[in-house]
Structure formats: C-alpha cells, structure tokens
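Minutes, project check-in
Item: structure for the 31-residue chain
Input as provided by the requester:
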Amino acid sequence: MTSDLFHIATVITFCIAAVVMLRYFGKLRGK
C-alpha cells in the first residue's frame, strides 16, 4: 500500500513536470 502511494506520487510529479516543460517550451516558441 505504501509503495502504491509512492508510485502515484511519482506519476503526479512527472505529470506536473511535463506540463511545466510544455508551458516553458511554448513561451520559447512564442518568442
């Protein structure tokens, strides 16, 4: 159960990082 929660937290962190990267690259292309 603990490892499952850790796995979910890792996936959420990865998703947030992906969104931030997309926004960052979007700003670069916007320039």
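Outcome recorded: Helices lie at 2-30.
No further action items on this chain.
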